[in-house]
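Input/output pair, single chain:
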Amino acid sequence: MAAAAVPGYSPGFKKPPAMLRLKRKRQRRSELPTTAAAAAAAAAAAPSACGAAPRPPPARRNPFSCLDNAPRTAKPRERGRRELRAGGGPSAAPFWQDLHLPVLIPNIPSSPRNEFPADWSIKTRLLFMSSQPFTWAEHLKAQEEAQGFAQHCRATETNLPQCVQEPKMSTELRCAFQQSLIYWLHPSLPWLQLFPRIGAERKIAGKASPWSQDEALQQVLMSEWSVSFTSLYNLLKAKLCPYFYVCTYQFTVLFRAAGLAGSDVITAVISPTTRGLREAMRSEGIEFSLPLVEESRIRKRKNSEMNMETEVVHSPEVGKSTEDGEEPPPTDDDEESFSWLEEMGVQDKVKKTDAISIKLHKEKNEVQMDHKPESVALVKGTNTFTLLNFLINCKSLVAATGPQAGLPPTLLSPIAFRGATMQTLKARSINAKARARLSYKDIFSLEIIGPVTPHSLHSLTMLLKSAQRGAFSAILYSHEPTAVFNIGLDDASTALNKEAVCKDLSKCGLHPKTLDQLSQFSTLGKSSIRFLEMKDYVYTWKS
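Output:
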């Protein structure tokens, strides 16, 4: 106990790894030739050619100090961030150090297009960059903010010219910017971050949750949530709402109106799912498909057919090949495997594979895909209404324990619905310097934080197209469990009439150009757009 009062004392003295390394270092030094040691000592003692004083030897580190307690210098990236926040200049760190670039971005971009594909994943952060400033997005006036709210509630269509000459002075642009940041949320608890819900235990832990131990309060919250959920579905069915999300602590559901994503019926996509959830849906009579699993089966079947054809062509015994679809004849391997047990007389004590074991073996792949993108489930048509009732009555929809216990799922929608609260995405502009050959150039960026849904992403790009003179780039951060929402529908109508879709959904609150984009057939698969760039009013992207 007395040793604990000594300054610099560390409990690591029992196993001092630094002491062992120091001993090994001394042994290596002692093995050096004396001439080399003398030369090194002479070089250290001799003054430099410039007449400067010799460098003092490095201070000896206490070998008994704990390595974890040693002072650490700031990493270059962290120093760069501090310099950037303190005010960028020629001596400041490059702007790109603060971009948090995604690690996996393909090097091959798409071919230039006038429009980028619809991305149904929810973005958590957008970072737009341009050589033109974003001052037009700063410090909106109270009147401009109010006008933006009114335009959203009245679904006012804003059409800007191809190039806005003075963006900062354009009231129409600034009001449209405020309009594009609005979304609707239920429930609304200002002290809790209600998106994302998957993996949000750390952010919610420690926050006040009076409902967690109050069953009566939980029932009230779920009752209000059920009313809001039903209201959203009715709006969707009446084509007054284009889409909405149901975000639970385990999975997310995307409901889309008929006419979107190339489908002429209402669709619902659920990801990720588990075997238990799928079995519960089947027991409730909900018909659904597993698009990625079926796609994998079709691909394997085609590959096997191609391999079989190749074997038939090259095999000398063509007449002995099995017909397409027939199972090969059973072998006696299973019977022969028990022959040695019969010789020992213990064959009766060993049970052969029964029906239950065979069933479990067949379901092995289905269990292995749980919580993975491959587990995405697709529900169509009237089955979506059955899914609505299933989710309302599903007890496992709400966490029973943990920080999210008793908290209803989050409903996200682009339009107002019963019990919803208007929310706005957070936006801020950043000015910095970036290295350009032998000098520095100004780089302007606009950061958008929050649950960015598909219509908001498209609306923002339309505004930037006019305000930034057709030249900008963006880094998009997706909520990964929702990236698989971009899978194509197995029987989507490629000949869906665009004019009919826009006419039917004309009152859903979206801009006609945004509606046209969201009605397109999904082409991104189970990935999402990570990088988006516009040059000369033409898009390229990377997923």
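Residues 182-204+211-307+366-424+488-507 form one domain. Residues 110 and 420 are 38 Å apart (CA to CA).
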